[in-house]
TrEMBL record:
The keyword Membrane applies. The chain crosses the membrane at residues 156-177. It holds the Pfam family Menorin_N. It comes from Cotesia glomerata. The keyword tRNA-binding does not apply. InterPro entries: Menorin_dom. GO terms for cellular component: extracellular space. Belongs to the menorin family. Keywords: Membrane, Transmembrane, Transmembrane helix. Residues 4-149 form the Menorin-like domain. This is Menorin-like domain-containing protein. It comes from the Eukaryota. PANTHER family: CONSERVED PLASMA MEMBRANE PROTEIN, MENORIN (DENDRITIC BRANCHING PROTEIN).
Amino acid sequence: MNLQMTFPVWLNADILSGPVDADTKPVDSKQFLSLANKTLPESTLSVGWTTRYGIQNVIFSGNYSEAQIDEMIKSVSNTSQPITYPVRAGLAAGDITVWSKLLNSTADKNATLTIWSTEGDKVDVDQLIKLIQEVGYDRVYVDVPEKLRKQLAGSATSASISTFVLLSSIFLGNVLLANLF
């Protein structure tokens, strides 16, 4: 099947078990990656980890381990499609070094992070800002509730974060809307 895509498409799946003993079963990574490549090779893969965190689970600490990062690197090693890694804000801000390792070890040298959270997640805003700055504004998307978005924009010492958060939110909104039509 050769579809002519006229808008960006992201295919999202939790392909690995993630932080804090996540009990949600991930999708089969090999099958997902194979089908994505065969069916929509022009799409961006949004591949991440299952998580157990936040107000629903009454868990407010944890982080992605180096072993989980290594497993992701291995899982996507043969992937030629663009990749964004969705990472939960409250868990991702805890260890900035693992994200540099992940992005630098991915075959797609333009790989990005999509930082997301849900209402009620505990997020260290200052650490999250450091993470965004360390990774680079051009390699991070933000998909967070309004309250956290405003905190990120309001805590910034430079206009870059505020502009970045706004543009990132608009881009993700457009991507999500495009997938509806």
